[in-house]
Structure formats: C-alpha cells, structure tokens
Amino acid sequence: MFGIHLDLAALLTIGITSIIVLILAISGARRISVANPSKLQNFMEWTVEFVEGIIGSTIGSKHGKGFIALGLTLIMYIFVGNMLGLPFSIVTEDHVAWWKSPTADIAVTGALTVIVIFLSHYLGITRNTKHYFAHYFEYKGAMLILHLIEVVSKPLTLAFRLYGNIYAGEIMISVILGAGWYGFAPLAVWQGFSVFVGAIQAFVFTMLTMVYISQTLIHEEGH
Amino acid sequence: MGVMALVAAAIVFGLGALGAGIGNGLIVGRALEGISRQPELRGTLQTTMFIGVGLVEAMPVVALVLAFIFFGKA
After folding, report:
1. pTM of the full predicted structure?
2. Nearest Cβ partner for B65 among A157, A164, A200
3. B56 and chain A: CB distance < 8 Å anywhere?
4. Which of B54, B62, B68 is opposite residue A160, by nearest beta carbon?
5. ipTM surpassing 0.90
6. How confident is the model at residue B10 (pLDDT cuts 50, 70, 90)?
7. Partner-chain contact B54 A204, CB within 8 Å
8. Does residue A37 have a pLDDT over 70?
9. Where do the DSSP E strands lie in chain B?
C-alpha cells in the first residue's frame, strides 16, 4: 500500500502549537519595561535565562550566543505541544482522532529530531571540519564502530523518547477514562504527572540538542 | 496468536519497568548522596538528576508503546 498518510490531528495541532508559541513570544516582547515588567515578560525572561543556562553548561557562552533562539524555540514548542493533548481529546466515529498532542505523533518528533541532528552534523562539517572527521578515527579507529552506532542511535532515541513519553501518557489517559467516575481521582493525579513529564521531556530534548551540537561543534583541547 | 501477544506485552513492559525502577533508583540515590556531601551543589545535582531520569526512562517508555501495540493486536 503506497500512499502518504496525512494525519489531520497532527497537522491541526502542529499549527495550533505554533500559533500559541508565536502569541506567547510576541506578547511577551511587547512594551518591555525595565522598572515595571509584566508577568508575561517576567516569564519569558526567566525562560530565556533558563535556556542560556543550558547553553552555558554545554556549548559555553562564547560559541553559544547564536543558539539561544534555537533552544528557546525548541523548549517552548515542545512544552506547549506536550501540554496540548492533556485537557481534552476529540475522537469522532470510525476512530478518527481530531485532537491530540502533536508530539504524540512519531512523525512530528521525528521531524524535530531530523532538524536537530541535521543541524549538528552540518555545523560540525562546515565549522569544525578537521576535528569533526578526525573525531571518528580517534584511538586508531577503535572508536569507529562505537561512533557509528552513536550516529544511528542518537536520532532514534531522541525521537522515540519524546514520542513514547507523550503517547503513552495519552493512552493512559484514555485507559483511566474507561473506568468512568471511579477514575476521577486517578485522572487528576495522572494529568498532574503528565504536566511534569511534559516539562521534563521538553527540557531533556533541548538539553540533548545542545549537547549534540556541542559535541560536533566544539573541539576541546587535549583529546 | 492472541494469547502470545498478551504475554509479549506483559514481558516487554514488565522488564522495561524493572529496568526503569533500578535505573531511576540508582540515579536518585547517587544524587542524594552527592547532595548530602555537598549541599551547596543542590541545584546542579537536582538538574542533572532530572536529565538522567529523562534519559533512562526513554527505553522503558518505548517498551510501553510496544506493549500497547501488542495489546491492541491481541
């Protein structure tokens, strides 16, 4: 069976997530005031400082200035995307799903992973060419097989970690809903835990992005 | 085929949960030890602990998804 499946729920929620992040970012940057910051401005500043902290501990502030936008976009988009499927889920007849977290779809997390991995390899090859290729043949080629396994497993685990966490959370919600009114308390507990997991996974994805970029981009002396 | 799929789902997720439990236990335990030794590093250690938990939980969560797939095929 040949054909490209367009998942309507995924497309719809990708667009909605993008719009929400855009509105948050633009309203946070409007009418900036040093003496009297609004709550949203405070929140955005906190997020930017948080991303700067991540970059500082991985790439280092010297080389990392240009990656703040990437980190900020990733963490906001993934966090909003993870939260989207929690309040409700719309499934019509014939099991057509109209609403779910965009990150609960392997296609979306796969796309995010492809962007990030492509970026890390591209940056390594263009900005750090000599060390990038020398890295593979360290220790007289003994590390080669390990590095090749790494090249394959990094994108796979990155994509599947985010997908699995959010998708399993959504399935668990539908399982708990099957218990009817007895499931009220467990559902509340599970939603709370899902918010926590969503935040952690957004943070881990962003942190790992920065780590992978730092591995190909920065060459430490004494290697 | 139906019963084997259920058994497969149970094994996949059971072993995954075992791995997650042991892994997370080790991570948080060592983080606790580190915090008790150097209370001023509490913020860094806590952050690293959460990163570790997020990383370790990746495989068991994939096992969970697989278990749901098997369960659906039973």
Report:
1. 0.87
2. A164
3. no
4. B62
5. no
6. very high
7. yes
8. yes
9. none
